[in-house]
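As a next step, the fold was encoded as tokens, giving this record:
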Amino acid sequence: MGHHGWGGRPPASDAEARQRIVDATARCIDRHGVTKTTLSDVANELGVTRQTVYRHFDRINDIVAEVAAQGAEAFVDRLVAHLQGTADPAEAVVEGMVFCLRTIPTEPRLSLLLQLGDSSAFGRGATTADTIAYGARMLRRFPVDWDAAGVGDDDLTGLAEMIMRLLTSLLQHPSDPAHDEAHLRALLTRWLAPALNRAPAPSPR
């Protein structure tokens, strides 16, 4: 690991170096926007060479994706906190989607998820197995007794896929004129909630 630059404080490990690169990239994005942030900007922010950054990340898009991923983790914590006290499965899913649609486009680091093209969490990447599995784990954190509602692990995976597909469409192709929250909530309650309000199918004998 190189010990030059880094503001006179070289990282103690590769993990620390990667995190400092991610943090520097986030600062550059805050100043310049994602489309104008280059790997040279990140290297200059850290006081290191481009080659030093390349030792840890192959492309600027890989660093930007990590900035977005870390922002998403913090976002999920806020989402789960927002849903506390909402134990009904249908209500939790509808309210969670409304929260996502309201929050993601307005926050710079979350909106990165919309700007990374086909690899992003809300591009073609929304339907990868890893992203859907992440969505299912996120649903498990909701304040809902899914088992009591008859929603098993396989069902949560399917629900996560449908949610990701719907969010992708609604975020990337918003209505014109835009729907307000009341309209979105009514739309989701009418067409999505019934699938979660159904009684569990009887077990085969």
Remarks:
- The chain has two domains: 11-58, 67-195.
- The chain has a mean pLDDT of 86.
- Residues 146 and 152 are 7 Å apart (CA to CA).
- The radius of gyration is 20 Å.
